[in-house]
UniProtKB/TrEMBL annotation:
Belongs to the GTP cyclohydrolase I family. Residues 60-235 form the GTP cyclohydrolase I domain. Pathway: Cofactor biosynthesis; 7,8-dihydroneopterin triphosphate biosynthesis; 7,8-dihydroneopterin triphosphate from GTP: step 1/1. Signal peptide: none annotated. Its EC number is 3.5.4.16. It comes from Poecilia mexicana. One of its GO terms (cellular component) is cytoplasm. Keywords: GTP-binding, Hydrolase, Nucleotide-binding, Tetrahydrobiopterin biosynthesis. One of its GO terms (molecular function) is GTP binding. CDD domains: GTP_cyclohydro1. This is GTP cyclohydrolase 1. It comes from the Eukaryota. GO terms for biological process: tetrahydrobiopterin biosynthetic process; tetrahydrofolate biosynthetic process. It catalyses: GTP + H2O = 7,8-dihydroneopterin 3'-triphosphate + formate + H(+).
Length: 239
């Protein structure tokens, strides 16, 4: 407990100091807060896992119905457990709905007197087109200019995964990645380029095997300063 006499109002000056336990009160409070955050994350993870488990039967039944309406025999060996496997797969492929940037950053933001460009390129990305529920996949290139704070490099890839593990369109995915980094770090600028092949254009529709879609989002100095934008594009897009 931080205060000896909780029923009495605190006074300013020496009386207030005497009322406050100085035995690492604030330090204990900070430690307790961190412990609470860890416990909260574990609780949230357990809750989401329980929710996923509870929804499996409905998803499994839906996939069974799809297979039967395709005039497949769902009792043959190859398909006996396919609805359950497909239900678990779709939950994994959309797990980003249950994750937030705070969850994955986990205090991996550090004070650093660095104000030059940081680029992580060729981050693999896999997502599902929300129009046809077929995959699109490719590479993400991220650049940011720190504003006295940097993030663990692997966390940039994790941010990509949060937003890609959802039903998506590439344009929105690109912007969400950029905005997520901007909100987390408050940098001077963020640049994101996504290059992807869309199976909805390869396996169906126009069936163009070699088509690629490129989208970009520029924020802060990358949007305002053409030279900074050109430097990022030259470094990120070079093989």
């Amino acid at each position: 407990q931080l205060f000896q006499k909780q029923a009495e109002p605190l006074l300013f000056g020496e009386t207030a100091v005497e009322e406050f336990h100085c035995n690492n009160g604030f330090n204990d409070l900070i430690i307790d807060t961190k412990k609470s955050a860890v416990v909260h994350r574990k609780h949230e993870t357990s809750r989401k896992e329980a929710e996923d488990e509870s929804r499996l039967p409905a998803l499994e039944a839906a996939y069974t119905s799809i297979l039967r309406n395709l005039e497949e025999d769902t009792d043959r060996d190859g398909l006996l457990r396919t609805p359950l496997r497909a239900a678990k797969a779709i939950q994994f492929l959309t797990k980003g709905y249950h994750e937030t940037i705070d969850d994955i950053l986990n205090n991996a933001i550090f004070d650093e007197d660095h104000d030059e460009m940081v680029i992580v390129k060729d981050i693999d990305v896999f997502s599902l087109c929300e129009h046809h529920l077929v995959p699109f996949f490719g590479k993400v290139h991220i650049g940011y200019i720190p504003n006295k704070k940097v993030v663990g490099l692997s966390k940039l890839a994790r941010i990509v995964e949060i937003f890609s593990r959802r039903l998506q369109v590439q344009e929105r995915l690109t912007k969400q990645i950029a905005m997520g980094i901007c909100e987390a770090l408050q940098p001077k600028g963020v640049a994101v380029v996504v290059e992807a092949a869309h199976m909805c254009m390869v396996m169906r529709g126009v069936q163009k095997m070699n088509s690629r879609t490129v989208t970009s989002t520029m924020l802060g100095v990358y949007l305002e300063d053409p030279k900074t934008r050109e430097e990022f594009l030259a470094l990120a897009m070079h093989a």
